[in-house]
Amino acid sequence: MKFFLDSANLDEIREAASLGMLDGVTTNPTLIAKEGGVDFKQHIAAICEIVRGDVSAEVTSLDAEGMLREGREYARVAPNVIIKCPLTREGLKTTRQLASEGIRVNVTLCFSAAQAILAAKAGASYISPFMGRLDDVGQNGLAVLADIVEIYRNYEWQTEVLASSVRGPVHVIEAARIGADVATMPFKVLEQLFNHPLTDKGLEQFLSDWHKGGRK
Fold it and tell me: pTM for the complete prediction?
């Protein structure tokens, strides 16, 4: 399973890249806005300089004409830019057209297996089911993810399942168990994957025993 960082913060992205486990980055308008008035295309270009893998840049238009204009423009920023389109009728029209032009698309804001089927048929490179947001409204986000993975395995669709709205390590672990192609997560979740109290306790004990032996 590939690890993407769900962030637009360059320091977080650099740190994640330094771990040698970062396969890509997903951004959205909210994450970009948190960086404080940056030039969108310049900021995406800066991320692409750090990350060799796919970097998602989201359109903000609501109509297909506007999405196509933005998508073509953003795709020219760097060869690893993936255009992020919403799972709406206009978004899927845009996905189909961009895909026909050789521009890869990450279809976002997916909340059902039915929507995921439409995205795959439209030629999406990625589908992003939002597990955490489904959990927030009393639905089972992991169950929806599992349905999508099962359905996709029945066909020869090239769409990769990108587990999104990841809230903690359990989401990452279960997404891996289900067989998602990618998990995108905030930096804090990536950090949490390293942590276990027994690791800290064991290291402390090893070092204590080492120094008790008079070693430096």
Answer: 0.91
Is 80 a domain residue? yes
Q: How many structural domains does the chain have? A: 1
| pLDDT(158) > 60 | yes
DSSP labels for 139-189?
S-HHHHHHHHHHHHHTS---PEEEEBS--SHHHHHHHHHHT-SEEEE-HHH
Would residue 114 count as lying in a domain?
yes
Q: At what angle do helices 89-100 and 113-121 cross, to 10 degrees?
A: 30
For residue 179, what are the contacts with CB-CB under 8 A and spacing of at least 6?
Answer: 149, 153, 161
- Which residues are known catalytic residues? 84
Contact indicator for 12, 187 with CB cutoff of 8 Å: yes
Summarize the confidence of residues 92-121 as an average pLDDT: 98
Q: Token pair of 215, please?
A: 């070693």
Backbone angles phi, psi at 109, to 5 degrees: 60, 45
pLDDT at residue 137, as a whole number: 97
Question: Mean pLDDT in the chain?
Answer: 95
The CATH number given to whatever domain includes residue 98 is: 3.20.20.70
46-75 tens-digit pLDDT: 999 999 999 999 999 999 999 999 999 999
Per the structure, the complete domain to which residue 23 belongs is given by 2-187
φ/ψ (deg, to 5) at 171: -60, -40
